[in-house]
Amino acid sequence: MIPVSIVIITKNEGAVIEQCIKRSKLITDDVVIIDNGSTDDTLIIAAKHSCRIYKRSWISYGSNKNLGNELAGYDWILSIDADELPDEELINTLQNIPLNDVNVVYDIPFRSYCGMQPVLHGNWGREHHIRLFNRKSVRWAETIVHESLVLNKNIRIKKIKGHLHHYTISNIDEYDRKCNYYAKLCAEQYFKNGKRAGAVKMHLSPVFGFLKSYFILLGFLDGRPGWLIAKTNFVNTRRKYTYLNRFETHPQKKHAVKESFAIEYR
Q1: Whole-angstrom Cα distance, residue 64 to residue 29?
Q2: Cα dist. 58→17, 49, 51, 55, 265 in Å?
Q3: Rounded to two decimals, what is the model's pTM?
Q4: Whether the Cβ atoms of residue 27 and residue 4 lie closer than 8 Å to each other
Q5: With the CA atoms of 14, 27, 135 and 36 taken in that order, what torsion angle do they form, in degrees rounded to the nearest 10?
Q6: DSSP assigned state of 12
Q7: Handedness of CA 197, 205, 178, 157 (dihedral sign)
Q8: CA 166, 172, 174: angle at the middle one, nearest 5?
Q9: Could you give the 3-state DSSP secondary structure of residue 36?
């Protein structure tokens, strides 16, 4: 075991969380669950594996993750989601990291899946995220969506070996629902920040995103999943700016989006 706390935010993750916890227990003896009102067996499974469980109403991804960091037993935090599994190489890498410099954060490669098929190209094939850091130096920005770490000028980023395997969706319909949900959250965040949906963003951004993912980043090499992912990204980029345009046109009708998912997706 290493002096790292693993923090997981959850809501109705009973179908996937057990394997995540089992892999996490190969790394640390401190797994912290921040739960946003699960009604399935998520908390039963977490309790069975001796996780520390805290219940909290939803505020934002960053806010709930920061709470988990504050409640963690160690200063070093590995932030993962219930549908992410560290592989053997990553576990071995983590067990050999000295963790003696609070100004270093660690960037972890991802391997994402559509169903059980790994996606090796397109935007998904290039994923990597900073997920290991010291809470004394780093915290999450508390934005509505697409939370990111606030890194000061003294922070150095190091890439490490191994992967977090992200079983993000079971099928493309689920992906479309998630993307639509995040499109609404993004539009709300943009509106809050004063961004506007011009004609270029409404019509050219979806096209550019599709061409980049499917052709420039070779998404077509992933076959049907590559096509469906690129197409869904096109549709939901258009949705994002359509929602933003509606917020601009009818700000009095803007309502907070209901939180139906509590899992990070990029």
Answers
A1: 21
A2: 19, 24, 20, 10, 17
A3: 0.87
A4: yes
A5: 10
A6: S
A7: negative
A8: 75
A9: coil
What is the 8-class DSSP label of residue 136? T
Q: Which two tokens stand for residue 262?
A: 């509590």
> How many C-beta neighbours within 10 Å does residue 29 have?
15
| pLDDT tens per residue, range 81-137 | 999 999 999 999 999 999 999 999 999 999 999 989 999 999 999 999 999 999 999
Alpha helices in the chain (DSSP H): 17-24, 42-48, 61-71, 88-95, 172-192, 199-211, 224-249
What tens digit of pLDDT does each residue of 151-206 get? 999 999 999 999 999 998 877 788 788 888 888 888 888 888 888 888 888 889 99
Query: In the block, which residue shows the tokens 């998630």?
Result: 178
**Cα 122 to Cα 196, 213, 231, 238, distances in angstroms:** 27, 4, 12, 19
Give the pLDDT band of residue 256 (cuts 50, 70, 90): very low
Q: Which of 84, 99, 6 is nearest to 52 (CA)?
A: 6
Q: How far apart are CA 53 and CA 173, in angstroms?
A: 31
Q: What is the signed CA dihedral for 126, 200, 196, 183, rounded to 10 degrees? A: -40
Strand partners, 76: 4, 134
Size (the chain), residues: 266
Q: How far is CA 95 from the centre of its chain?
A: 23
Torsion of CA 180, 186, 187, 189, to 10 degrees: 150
Task: Lowest mean pLDDT of 7-11, 131-135, 187-191, 209-213, name the range.
Answer: 187-191
Tokens of residue 15, six digits: 């179908």
Instruction: Please give the distance of CA 169 from its chain centroid, rounded to a whole number.
Output: 13
